[in-house]
Amino acid sequence: MMARLAELTSPEISLRATTSVLAIPIGSTEQHGPHLPMSTDTDIAAALCERLRSARDDVLVAPALPYGSSGEHAGFPGTLSIGQTALELLIVELCRSAFDTFDRVLLVSAHGGNTEPINRAVRLLRSESRDVYLFCPRWQGDPHAGHQETSMLLALAPERVRMDHAIAGDTRPLAEIMPLLRIGGVRAVTETGILGDPTAAEPEAGHRLLETLTAALLDDVSAWLEPAMP
Asked: Which pTM was predicted?
């Protein structure tokens, strides 16, 4: 059974709306060093939603939102950011529209810079008694364009990874460089745009991490949709 919103007709969606959750992947269009595509965050969010729909027959996946709040990556060619205010408003209005059809909406955001504005949007939507849930994948290790993200892209789309251009970036702990990032963005700490070291990335590690993140997403969604029996 098809489970992608964009591939269905309106009457087909109407038949499934009351028994389905709408999952919306949210990413960004931002630099990921000289070796990863601009769509990296969007690709990861979309992959997690696809894996979720494969595991549950009550999930419909919406087209991915490829723009987010990426101001910290300003100065790197190709980065397109809509900022926090616009993203917050976009999520609020998009979800309000979705709730015309669906009773529950799941947001899966794979870009850290999106978290604050989306959380604000979720709080507003919940204050309107709308059943919305936000999942943000997290992992230990490199925060941006490093070993983990590169490994996942090698697992998802190896033909789009330029491993011959992969180089180590700033490998200091994120907590140590966060003050610099807040003041001057990623450019303040690395000319390559990489926070971490992608040079040893491998698809096997990417598959394992995607499986871990998918399991976490499944657990969260199950807890949200299926409250524990008394």
From this structure: 0.96
